[in-house]
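Batch manifest, entry 17 of 40.
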Amino acid sequence: MRHSKFPYRFLLLAAICWLPACVPGVQAPATSSGRPAPSALPEQRIEEFENRLQRLQDSIVMLEARLYDQQQAIDNLKTRTRSEATLPETGETASPGTELSGPGELTPTEIYLAAFGDYAAGDYRKSIRGFSRFLQFFPANDYASNARYWLAECYFALGQYQQAITEFDRVFVDHPKSSKAPDALLKKAAALYQMEREQDAIDTLQILEERYPKSSAARKAAESFN
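Output type: structure tokens
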């Protein structure tokens, strides 16, 4: 049974129209006639807007993941009820279905959301399987960089810092223009510090400062590590 997809793309479109009004200081100066004069947003304001938009997008994905999990639970309950109803009365129960090695009938979005839902619930090992599956079958998907980043976060949460570093590196190398690339460098540095590789961590933070000097990750690094 397929569930109705949450219209998060429409929410994102609404957010794009709404967020600028919420960013303080983003107003065009008034002319002598009282009408606002057109002006370009300062680069810092643009960066803040992009960061807020990314956070909103992650929040919407989180919400959709929870809705998806709820729908999956309902569907599984219905399936189990139907299966048990068809079994002979011998005390036997239906054997649980095994996960397909391929994507099956699931869309890339559904696989991603299921993995993200597992991450949000703290089931990092299951989330690792989900994100790995997503990246295996949909490596060119728009969410590939995000999936790689959250995969690395799962390893970080489990204390598997070397594997986390490997995955954070792939975010930066494979998706250098992704909004997750600066964050991946910051978390890589954190993993290196956990492994007491301080010089490597400092070198990583230097790359972050050089490549993404105006990113929120660079500002957090300056606040946290200086």
